[in-house]
Design a protein that fits this description.
This protein is an alpha/beta fold and about 350 residues long. The protein has two domains: about 45 residues; about 220 residues, Zn-dependent exopeptidases (Aminopeptidase, 3-Layer(aba) Sandwich), CATH 3.40.630. About 40% of the residues lie in helices and about 15% in strands. A hairpin with a 2-residue loop joins strand 7 and strand 8. Helix 5 packs across helix 10 and helix 7 crosses helix 10. The protein starts with about 25 loop residues before the first helix and ends with a helix.
């Protein structure tokens, strides 16, 4: 033992407070344990103090720079308009903010679907081609070369109920305009209109033959083509006092090779349509020398007697009459005649 005695305190109120950092008052064991901590604190605290002082210096410097920038900005804000534009994004070139969506939000429009190509059947028919699938026979009366072949055209052919000349030369105006040229011109014009409307048009002759064909062959061409309708175009050579046009209808003939029974009814309908269209389209009056109200029925024409398809003739006027001749030699009037012919056939075939 040491020879020194520590006083003993029985009253807790008189005890001295415990100071963990005070080595003099701490028990000997505790003081030994706190010595390393005290040494560490002696090193760390100065370092922290130096770091805090450095941070304060940087912060003060940043505030000074911001204040200086604000003082030089037109609107008193740091960065001014340049920062506003940067925040707003790219411009559209005239100073306004672009409204272009972000790349992720843009929708790429789908490529338009190509329009379907019309089928051949759809393009081949329609309201403007009402005669598609129909066949029309046009028979230009006579032939410009007939006059040079009298032997051939004068021979007789069977027309069912009799025999008649193969063909004739036709007539002409007093000025020499021939019927054969007139009929071929009108038929060419009518053919174009009918083909534009979709019809297949068959001609009995197109001026390519030296003569003919004969009347029985003309009927046979329409029969072989299985025409839906046929019209033979002529001009008359009556006395000069006669004027006007008329349509010739087939009468009933049942004799030999002729049997018009199946075509009399439909031919009458076709004839009435042609009469009405021709009068309205050309202004030509009904004939004042043949027929009644522009219609005449005959049983002596081989082109009608031998036809197996609905067929009529039209005498477009009297070439020996000066008024009729003046009209028939006018190309514009011939176009009207062709139009009337095509319109009548169209009405017949679509009615």
């Amino acid at each position: 033992m040491t020879g020194r005695t520590t006083p003993h305190h029985d009253d807790p109120g008189e005890q001295e407070p415990y100071d963990p950092y005070g080595a003099a008052s701490a028990p000997a064991g505790r003081a030994a344990r706190w010595r390393p901590a005290a040494k560490a604190a002696a090193v760390v605290l100065p370092v922290c103090l130096i770091g805090w002082l450095g941070w304060q210096a940087v912060a003060n410097s940043s505030r000074d720079v911001s204040a200086s920038a604000a003082a030089h900005s037109p609107d008193g804000r740091v960065g001014g308009a340049a920062n506003d534009r940067a925040a707003a994004g790219p411009t559209d070139g005239d100073g306004g903010a672009s409204e272009r969506p972000a790349a992720a939000d843009r929708t790429v429009p789908a490529a338009p679907s190509p329009a379907p190509s019309p089928s051949p059947a759809a393009s081949a028919s329609g309201p403007d081609r009402p005669l598609t699938g129909r066949t029309v026979l046009l028979d230009p009366g006579h032939n410009p070369g007939n006059a040079k072949h009298p032997t051939e055209i004068n021979r007789k052919v069977d027309i069912g109920n009799s025999r008649k000349e193969c063909d004739t030369t036709g007539t002409a105006t007093d000025a020499g305009y021939p019927e054969a040229e007139f009929t071929l011109d009108v038929v060419h014009r009518a053919r174009q209109i009918l083909e534009d409307r979709g019809a297949k048009v068959v001609l009995t002759q197109d001026g390519e033959r030296p003569w003919g064909p004969c009347v029985d062959e003309r009927a046979g061409i329409g029969n072989a083509a299985k025409a839906d309708a046929a019209v033979s175009v002529h001009a008359d050579g009556a006395p000069a006092s006669g004027t006007g046009f008329h349509v010739i209808l087939p009468g009933r003939v049942v004799d030999g090779a002729a049997d018009t029974s199946p075509i009399v009814g439909p031919s009458h309908r076709l004839g009435v349509l042609l009469r009405d269209a021709f009068r309205a389209g050309t202004g030509e009056p009904y004939s004042n020398y043949l027929g009644e109200q522009g219609l005449d029925t005959r049983t002596d024409l081989g082109g009608l007697n031998l036809s197996k398809v609905p067929k009529v003739f039209i005498e477009c006027g009297n070439m020996r009459n000066s008024g009729d001749a003046g009209r028939m030699t006018d190309p514009q009037w011939r176009q009207l005649a062709a139009q009337a012919l095509a319109d009548a056939l169209t009405s017949y075939l679509t009615g």
